[in-house]
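notes to self, project folder thing:

trying the whole complex as one job this time. last attempt i did each chain seperately and stitching them together was a nightmare. two parts in total, labels are on each line so i dont mix them up again. if this works i'll redo the older ones the same way
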Amino acid sequence: MSKTFTLTIDNTAVKAEPGWTILQAADAAGVYIPRLCGHKDLVPHGSCRVCTVLVNGRPQSACTTPATPGMVVDTATDELKEHRKRLIEMLFVEGNHFCMFCERSGGCELQALGYRFGMLSPRYPYQFPVREVDASHPDVMVDRNRCILCGRCVRASRDLDGRSAFQFVGRGPEKRIAFNAADGLGGTDIEAADRAVEVCPVGAILRKREGYRVPIGQRPYDRDPIGSDIEAKAAAAAGAGEED
Amino acid sequence: MSETDAAIAEICERFGNDRTRLMDIVAAVQADRGGVDGSALDAIASAVGVPRVEVESLVTFYAFFSDRPKGGIVIRLCDDIIDEMFGAGKVERAFREALEIGIGETTPDGRITLERAPCIGLCDQAPAALINDVPVTYLSGDRAREMVAELKQHGDPRKLVHRLGDGNNAHPRVRSMVHNGIRKRGAVIFAEMERGAALRRALAMSPVEVIRDIKTSRLRGRGGAGFPTGMKWDFTRAAEADRKFVFCNADEGEPGTFKDRVILTECPDLLFEGMTIAGYAIGATEGIVYLRGEYAYLREFLEEVLEQRRKDGLLGKSLPGRPEAAFDIRIQMGAGAYICGEETALISSCEGLRGDPKNRPPFPAQRGYLGFPTCVNNVETLCCAARILEKGPGWFAELGSKGSPGTKLLSVSGDCSIPGVYEVPFGIRLDALLEMVGAPNAAAVQVGGPSGRLVGPDEFKRMICYDHLATGGSVMVFGPQRDLLHVVERFMDFFVEESCGYCTPCRVGNVLLRQKVADFRAGRGAASDFAWIEELGDTMKTASRCGLGQTSANPVLSSLQAFRDLYESRLGPDRGDAFLPAFDIRGALAESERLAGRASVVYTGGEGEG
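result (full assembly):
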């Protein structure tokens, strides 16, 4: 194994391996940095900006920035938390997110971050965009109303499923997810078991005929706030430390 | 294979079926067929071996490409604020009436399409438009009607040019009505040049010595960010790789900027010499000029200058006195995307991708174009570098002000009597500049384009330089008759249009800020909005992924700072009930009322039954 090194995250020295990003180093150390476009099995994207941290005092996305020896990272200053909350609110008003009748409620990372940040209602005006739903595929549907343009499906389909079923088209506020076929999702070779379907952080890509298989109240973020799994590592490590 | 598929396959073949040349392939298909429709997407995708949706992704990113067919003639009316001030609205109306179509539409015979375009680099001869590649300037309603009549008759935009501009605008390879508008010549860019002199001096030195001279001159990037050029060259030189690249960023798109157009027209040799010197210094043998699509009319001319330099031994397989050093340059056309002026987006575009900026690190000097170390410099910066090698770093460092050596080209437009390009020493005071350009009554000046700052008279004594009023070259003057909030709103329109949409704060934040300015203009501002704007602007600055989003809140933030009274005068009635005046209840109810077929009982005081 290559040489581990040390950097400072939130005033604590943590170990990292060459090639790790700041996000990976923080995850390993039990420091949860909120993220939406980032996913452990995917190449970093750096688009949601929720994982913005201060690296030696300068803002950088933790998911794309390599950890380096001696680096000083702050992940949770009051200002950073406020920026994150605003970014989450921006994503909420940009699309049409109606949690109360969304199949992903309780398993949705956007909603879970809203709860984690104590968002009561967004401070920005709802944009109520008109967006298209694609239900042309027999087993998978895409509801662009809930899409946050994180690009997880694009990367998963290309890099994990070997299909490239998804890609972005348009630019700016007109940017949207599109499919590798002239006639919609049904024209692609995507399958319900694809990782691209599973990695969607919100309710934009759903398997058909699976609605409410897990009852509301028993879904991942109904039980524990998002990030608890990562923070549990730090708690466990601290507990182990006390026993020593 | 159908005939059209064969034609597309042939175009792809011409570019080696190379995925990284997708910009050129799509541009050629677009020119050939007026659009890149579904079948063309399939044909291109199969020829270059990429998923169809990748091609669609690129086509839908660039304003000059289209997935729906356009006419053989596309009229793009410049719709920046300066053109609007000089009557672009009347011109647009005349075009619409003469063509009997609206914006974004094509005539029923399929021949002519009418569109708007953000700044096309002709603010000093506004209103202006591009008709295919042909720039047309000083438009009026009458001229628009004449042009439509001419186009209907002969169908050739080039024949609309009846009088040629000055200098190389009249060159047989250009033949444009554009004029240079050089109002002041300085010692660096617009001075006489002896072709090859700077290059020979550079080649007599070692690459390390060349970089040392650039460092000694303290040259900083002219595009706006002001990064020290010598350091950039040094980083790229230090990176280990088999191939390295020198890129020239000729994608000036900041509204109000047009100085690179004049350099490209009048000083291409100085530019190419600067690129060649950079190549020698960093150990690169390949250069690419990324030329904005709006300047396509200069392409043939620039190709001819390059060819002449090859013939004269100043470019190619060996360089003067250095048979081991090779350097050549190709031109890559852009296709209507301001974001591609951002250096990593520019690289993406050259690689045949959407113009999305890349994550940094790695920086282009480490891993840029196709993963190779790449040095991206602005047109003007490369010209300065050539002049520094010709005249010496000490000479250059003596010009300008202490922290900002050299001269700066300023593109001046708006409410002034002598718009055009001025080469002035850094450190010139804004009020001195305003006197020079004939703007004694300026009420406000946008320095550095929309991403720069809007300053009022109390700041006119400040200097133009990196440490005070920084600018990539755009200076827009606004007289007392202008509605500055409208100006700000138009700048936000620009950023909404030109954001690539990759990251959240820029994609969403610009839309929200534009809405807020519109609220104020409609007299629906709230006192609490001031903090709201500053906080949102702060998040955009902090969290955006590239320079566009990090600066696009500036029109609102800087105008709020300099002209707060303008905003305060548009506050809505304070009802003291904590409700936001920005919320227009009647507007929000309009659709429901329409569907219900009656007015709201509550909001019409019970009189709405109908």
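what i see at first glance: Chain B has 24 helices and 14 strands.
need to look closer tmrw
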